[in-house]
Amino acid sequence: MPPSPPFPNAATGTVQPSTAELPRLSAVHWPPGAYRREHLPERVLQFGTGMLLRALCAASVDAANSAVAFSGRIAVIQSTPQGHARAINAQDGLFTLVERGLERGAPVERTRLVGAISRALVADAEWPAVRDIVARPELQVLVSNVTEAGFRADGSFPARLTDLLHTRFARLPDGPPLFVIPTELVDDNGPRLAAMVDGLAGGLERGAQFRRWLERRVRFCSSLVDRITTGTPARDVRATLERRLGYADALLTVTEPHSLWAIEADPAELRAAFAIDVLPESVIIAPDIAFYRERKLRLLNGAHTATAPLALLAGVRTVREAAEHPRLGGFLRRILFEEIAPATDLPGDAAAAFAGTVIERFRNPWLDHEWRVIATNQTAKLRARVAPSLTGFARKRRIAPQGLALGLAAYLRWVRTHPADDPDLPLIERHWRTATALPGLAASALADTDAWGVNLAELPGLLEATTRWLVLLEHDGVAAALEALPRTPEHAAPGRTGS
Questions:
Q1: Which of 129, 198, 359, 433 has the fewest CB atoms within 10 Å, measured from its CB?
Q2: How far is Cα 19 from Cα 491, in angstroms, rounded to an integer?
Q3: Is there a single domain that holds both residue 322 and residue 218?
Q4: How many CA atoms lie within 13 A of 95 on its CB side?
Q5: Is 187 in the same domain as 331?
Q6: 334 and 447 belong to one structural domain
Q7: 301 and 181 in one domain?
Q8: Which domain holds residue 363?
């Protein structure tokens, strides 16, 4: 296929090269006035080569290096056959971070070259080299993002992590403390990972001593990440960005401006090893991160989960389209401001302010966040993210939240027609197989404590509301149900006067 023709630059009238003619990003593109990255030691070992950790961990370390607060680089481990190790090494660890979105209602776009990654190693082929890194005294932080599916005791990740910790125990027993920071979206991910490692430690050489060493020398820190990244940009978007940059970047990382990494640890102790909180709104180190966890899981993730089946039934593809939709946008505002926020134990002003940023993030014109992706593992997500809001609202108001009840009914309706391999779906599908009428289906499904961890049918008015919405969805469709939902006042995102 012949290369594409050159493109004129509208601003200057000059001709831009086609992407086929662009040089590949490499160390020669690192600005001469930036920090001397090639001299920085590898102080962080990271499991995972994906986009989220590039947009979060690498970006945070890079900012700290630029501020002369940290002075270290990240060695990355590719744990699976699929990964980006080859591209990372081919680009000398460099990648471009593109932040695009809305801030106080105005579109923003920021681009920067990130130099925090030193190299990538493939676990299956280069494990001795990984062991050598972990045995060095300057290495004090291990970060992971292996997805929720890999974050389990019988998976390869806990075994590999345990092997690395045992290597450090054997080779550097008196070395400085080591901080293990998982970023998987699992509650109490630090203690859970510590328990997995402890369970494996006893079977290794000098197991009892190794366990005592773990207690003294290793800190497992829970953490919470909040930054929406949605995969590789579309080909035309990528081509436009690369022509503007002047190089081809196989790791081009497009994300939203909002970024939060909350790490639960003794602030002084962690900062001595990992001083990356140079932007306080982006990295937070605190003894307790429960506030940030509840805020994110209940408001951001809860709104996603409660809306996904309804949006899919309505034929709406992306979160942005739903936020801009005349009725789904109203649904989102209702559940966020009138139902989820009041159901939390967060301070009212803090909950409302964050709800406003959620709407703004959902309206990001550059992110195509698809509902079909969000709707995976929907039953488990409803249990973790929405059921607490249903119970909290009932406890405080003694009535049913109508928007969340509609979202729950939409889920029951969507399950019947959704041929996914979601491992949780059989929990709900069995109610469809045994129900003879919609009221019986709703009563059976809501009372299923195996699905929700609580009997939702016992909450005041929820069964009646869910049944009513389910009947309306079945007989008249999603448009009629959204039209019947009582309208609520407009809530402006920060810096806006409405939408």
A1: 433
A2: 43
A3: no
A4: 32
A5: no
A6: yes
A7: no
A8: 291-484
Low-confidence ranges of the chain (pLDDT < 50): 1-15, 492-499
Element (H, E) at 107: strand 106-114
Rounded CA separation 286/221 (Å): 10
Question: Does residue 497 belong to any structural domain of this protein?
Answer: no
H runs (alpha helix) in 103-222: 123-134, 147-150, 156-171, 189-201, 207-217
* E strand residue ranges, 215-265: 218-220, 223-226, 253-255, 260-264
* Among candidate residues 26, 74, 17, the one with its CA nearest the CA of residue 48: 74
Cβ contacts of 473 within 8 Å, gap of 6 or more = 313, 409, 410, 413, 481
Task: List, for residues 430-464, the tens digit of each pLDDT value.
Answer: 888 888 899 999 999 999 998 899 999 999 999 99
- Give the containing element (helix H, strand E) for 15: strand 15-16
What is the signed CA dihedral for 423, 429, 430, 435, rounded to 10 degrees? 170
How far apart are the C-alpha atoms of 148 and 295, rounded to whole Å?
Answer: 20
- What sign does the CA torsion over 375, 380, 381, 386 have? positive
How confident is the model at residue 234, as a pLDDT? 84
**pLDDT tens digits for range 375-386:** 888 888 999 999
Q: Which run of H or E residues covers position 59?
A: helix 59-66
The reply to whether 420 falls in a domain is yes
Domain count, the chain: 2
Residue after which a domain boundary falls, among 287, 311, 339 = 287
Has residue 238 been placed in a domain?
A: yes
Is residue 93 domain-shared with residue 221, that is, in the same domain?
A: yes
Based on the fold, state whether residues 261 and 312 are members of the same structural domain.
no
Laid out side by side, the sheet with 283-286 consists of 223-226, 260-264, 283-286
Could you tell me which residues come within 8 angstroms of residue 36 by beta carbon, excluding any fewer than 6 positions away?
Answer: none
